[in-house]
Amino acid sequence: MTAQLAKHQKTRIKTDTEIFFHVMLEMVELCFRSTAEIATLCFCTDDKTRVPLGEKNGYINASYITMKVGEEEHFYIITQGPLPSTMADFWQMVWESESDLIAMMTKEVELGQVQCHRYWPEPPHDTIDLANFHLRLDNYQIVEYFIIRIIEMINNHLQFTTWPDHNTPKLAEQLVKFICYMRKVHSTGPIVAHCSTGIGRSGILLCIEVLLSYIEKDLCFSIKQIVRDLRNQRFGMIQTKVSSQYSIRL
Question: Which residues belong to any copy of the Tyrosine-protein phosphatase domain (predicted)?
Fold first, then answer.
């Protein structure tokens, strides 16, 4: 592995930034190949990590996730995609957690199936009024494989758009670049991540973000242990063979 990376660096990579990025991709691809071996490990009861809502500790299908990388801790909230009946609760959770970034790992509709209710403002009607919140779309930008939305309450919204629900992205590079941008704009509170179910793609996102942190810090890691730690904090995380395979291929 080391010899292959060294050869690749000499022939194809010019700058230090390119070297680092390419090594990350190679390492993530190696990890994806090994997670295919992960079967059922261990699952938690969600109550100890569930996100309480409001003063009465109301229920929302969301879990706190804490992942330690060396001496550093990464904090997330992972949740299912909002429904029409849970959209207000979702935004209340974002507000109470003081999160400034939402990572949406699904489209609204995929293969003819609704995956997530549209819970953000869109042109031409750039505002949404909820019971306790008023949302306004400040700006948005469509890039190659994700959409950036700046939503006032104030919140950054990143939507990864190239991941069909029953398949995986062809290029690990896309998700790595998404995560790099996600880190760039995130500054406060836990990252709120969701897909459709709140256990598949969003679990992969967290797994890869943690994995990249290990690589950046030049620390040893076990992909099985990362998945085990995620599953200990939310039931069913990275539940399918396809998800497990992608977790290593990246």
Answer: 43-250
**The listed CATH number (3.40.47.10, 3.90.180.10, 3.90.190.10, 3.30.390.50) that belongs to domain 2-249:** 3.90.190.10
Of 121 and 32, the structure prediction assigns the larger pLDDT to: 121
116 counts as catalytic: no
Q: Is the dihedral of CA 50, 213, 222, 25 positive or negative?
A: positive
Query: The dihedral of CA 238, 109, 91, 213: what is its sign?
Result: positive
Distances (CA, A) of 19 to 6, 26, 184: 10, 11, 19
- What's the token pair of residue 108? 């609204």
pLDDT value of position 129: 87
Query: Which of 77, 156, 79, 166 is closest to 116 using CA atoms?
Result: 79
pLDDT in the model for residue 74: 95
Confidence tier at 124 by pLDDT (50, 70, 90) = confident
Alpha helices in the chain (DSSP H): 2-12, 16-35, 87-97, 172-185, 201-216, 223-231, 241-249
- Catalytic one among 31, 44, 180, 195? 195
Taking the C-alpha atoms of residue 126 and residue 116, their distance in angstroms, rounded to an integer, is 19
Residue 51 in contact with residue 79, Cβ under 8 Å?
yes
Q: Among residues 76, 67, 37, which one has the least CA distance to residue 221? A: 67
